[in-house]
Write a structure and sequence with these properties.
Elements lengths: L2 E4 L20 H24 L4 E4 L16 H4 L1 H14 L2 E4 L12 H20 L7 E5 L7 H14 L2 H4 L2 E4 L7 H11 L3 E4 H6 L8 H8 L11 E4 L17 H10 L6 E4 L5 H12 L3 H16 L5 H10 L4 H16 L5 H13 L5 H15 L5 H14 L3 H4 L7
Helix pairs in contact: 1-3, 5-7, 10-11, 11-14, 12-13, 12-14, 13-14, 15-16, 15-17, 16-17
The protein binds a DNA duplex through helix 4 and helix 17.
Length: 417
DNA sequence: CACCGTCAAGTCGCA
DNA sequence: TGCGACTTGACGGTG
């Protein structure tokens, strides 16, 4: 079983996708931005490989305006070599890639111009994966679209349009239940009609359940036959609700115990799980290590990145974690204990005075001029007097870390909580 | 430097 | 009927 993350990695320098606004589009800006994004994707794949992750979703932002008339570049030719190299990197590392056009790609719209653009967008996504030399098990995830007051008609339109898609798109397309309109049973009905694999999303299903009452496991089993040999392993999406936000919002991180319960209930056969969560790779590593074990080295590396978050709560707790890792002859055994202890410590309240000390010591690594020192000292004082939230202080420190490329700070999880 | 409104995509749902 | 929410960085303007 592979556990994956989507589009971006926290704490990986030079990995973010740049975008353009329409007013800035030109041949030069398109070329420059595409080149940067491809280089950043390479960094993401290197990171994914180094951390032994096997599932990753490529951001649709890879090629700016990739499916729009605003971009007339034959980018797949201009960057043919780069794309092939990236695909090779993924293939050699056994990484399964995917893409996921957003909410604005609507195949079943009654407006023909919307449908035309949606098809162009799917062609763009398929072209990225194909240009990378990847097989059809590297998929494109799509929702059914709008309901327009008549889901039956909307479903019929989806099917009709699906049938007109280029084969290269059909070969990669997989369909997902959404959190508002099309339930898992409705998606399954459409998918069976057109012969397309289905991705079960547990959170969408929780919020937008079908009238048939089956368990998550039963729905996953119902989706299983839609996956044929050429499609690769069955994929599902797993997410948890952010309790502070509207229904459907992804949680900041994956809470371990509910994930473990979900995981234990999964079928014995091999399934790929794409996590949808704000902290991306951080949760992917947590869930992977917790269920499949991590080496002492892997856990130690994670611990260094989490450490300042524990320090700003209660520095005394550091020793317990370090003792656990020190006594660990076998990383497999302590992985679960490590992440459970970590979660427990991270659930503690931040201590303002400790957060101040932590911020000071991290800022010290980044400061390179008296002016910077004055600015950060001022920000820390503002935080001390509760004039700004900790988040803002961290942002200032991270801006400086970014400016001076302070890797130790940039790769830590310090700004995440 | 920090902050804020706007943009760009399509649909839904609430005044 | 019209506009806010959804998403997120880029961008331009202000303080």
């Amino acid at each position: 079983m592979s556990i994956g993350y989507a589009c971006l990695a926290v704490g990986v320098p030079e990995s973010e996708m740049k975008s353009l606004t329409l007013s800035k589009v030109s041949e030069k800006t398109l070329l420059d931005t595409s080149r940067i994004n491809l280089a950043h994707l390479k960094n993401l794949l290197i990171y994914t490989t180094a951390n032994n992750l096997k599932l990753f979703r490529i951001s649709s932002d890879l090629i700016p305006f990739g499916s729009s008339d605003a971009n007339t570049l034959p980018w797949w030719e201009v960057f043919a070599e780069n794309l092939l190299e990236l695909g090779k990197l993924a293939t050699e590392s056994g990484i399964r890639l995917s893409m996921h056009p957003g909410q604005y790609t609507v195949l079943n719209s009654p407006r023909p111009e919307v449908v035309t653009r949606a098809i162009a967008d799917l062609v763009y996504h398929a072209r990225v994966l194909t240009s990378m030399g990847l097989g059809n098990e590297h998929k494109i995830v799509l929702h059914i679209g709008g309901a327009y007051g008549d889901k039956v008609e909307a479903s019929k339109r989806f099917v009709a349009t699906y049938l007109t898609l280029p084969q290269g798109v059909k070969d990669r397309l997989i369909l997902e239940n959404d959190d508002k309109l099309f339930t898992i049973s409705e998606v399954l009905a459409i998918a069976r009609e057109v012969g397309c694999p289905v991705v079960f999303d547990n959170l969408h299903h929780k919020i937008n359940p079908s009238k048939e009452w089956l368990s998550d496991l039963q729905w996953i089993e119902a989706c299983a036959p839609t996956w044929k040999g050429k499609d690769g392993k069955q994929k599902i999406h797993y997410a948890q609700q952010d309790v502070r936000k509207r229904p459907g919002s992804h949680s900041p991180t994956i809470s371990l115990e509910p994930f473990l319960l979900f995981h234990e209930a999964l079928p014995a056969r091999d399934i790929d799980i794409m996590l949808e969560v704000k902290d991306k790779n951080i949760s992917a590593l947590k869930c992977m290590h917790a269920t499949q074990g991590g080496t002492v080295e892997q856990l130690g590396e994670q611990w260094l990145k989490y450490k300042p978050l524990v320090t700003e709560r209660d520095p005394e707790k550091i020793w317990k974690v370090e003792d656990l890792l020190k006594d660990a002859a076998d990383g497999q055994v302590v992985s679960l204990a490590f992440y459970r202890l970590l979660e427990k410590n991270l659930s503690l309240e931040v201590f303002r005075s400790q957060a101040e000390i932590t911020a000071t010591s991290i800022a010290e690594k980044c400061i390179q001029s008296p002016a910077e020192e004055r600015r950060i000292t001022k920000r820390i004082a503002e935080y001390k007097q509760a004039q700004i939230p900790l988040e803002k202080l961290k942002q200032s420190i991270m801006n400086m870390a970014n400016k001076h490329r302070v890797d130790e700070v940039l790769t830590s999880y310090y700004p995440m909580m």
